[in-house]
Specification:
This protein has about 150 residues and is of the alpha+beta class. It is built from 4 helices and 7 strands; from the N terminus they run βαββααββββα. The protein has helices at about 10-25, 55-65, 75-95, 140-150; strands at about 1-5, 35-40, 45, 95, 105-110, 115-120, 130. β5 and β6 (about 115-120) form a beta hairpin.
């Protein structure tokens, strides 16, 4: 997926995000950066793989629309939380904090209801920043609460 933005501030933010994504590249549960730079119109772009189901929020919205929300059960929630925890540990080890862990920022690359299986990758490093000294690792409590709310 290619993202581009209008305006110098947006372009600077996009390139900052690309630089942060470079630092956390190579983890199974972090969205890989495929390319970034300036296009032929000198506009900034970043390129990443496309997640077929969009974000977890997108997937749950579709399941709800289709009356199939029960297809996403506790086993899926546990898998998502475990994978995002691994991604956050990797981000932390790279000296960064994501700062926007949410259902719309975890992209779903595969999903099966039975047997329950879901694969997610953390995306959107637009709010990420450097770790502060002795700062604890970011948790997934907020994401868990959000998922429980969406599944009600
Ligand atoms: N690679 C991708 N594949 C599929 N959907 C994506 C992808 N990247 C972003 N999206 C969709 O676009 C939304 C916004 O993307 P995001 O990178 O989080 O930007 P923003 O800074 O606007 O929140 C995501 O919540 C998801 O629905
Ligand atoms: Mg986002």
């Amino acid at each position: 997926m290619r993202s581009a933005v209008e305006g110098r501030q947006g372009e600077a933010a996009l390139l900052r995000e690309a630089a942060l994504m470079c630092r956390v590249r190579g983890h199974a549960h972090v969205l890989p950066l495929l390319n970034f730079g300036l296009d032929h119109n000198m506009r900034a772009f970043v390129e990443t793989p496309i997640a077929p189901h969009g974000s977890i929020k997108d997937l749950l919205d579709s399941l709800e629309f289709e009356g199939r929300l029960a297809d996403f059960g506790d086993a899926h929630v546990e898998q998502v939380l475990a994978q995002v925890r691994l991604a956050l540990a990797h981000v932390h080890a790279a000296g960064m904090r994501h700062c926007d862990v949410a259902a719309r920022n975890a992209l779903v690359f595969s999903f099966s209801s039975q047997p329950p299986a879901v694969e997610v990758k953390l995306c959107d490093f637009g709010s990420a920043r450097a770790l502060r000294p002795r700062e604890a690792m970011e948790g997934v409590d907020g994401l868990e609460a959000e998922l429980r709310e969406l599944l009600k």
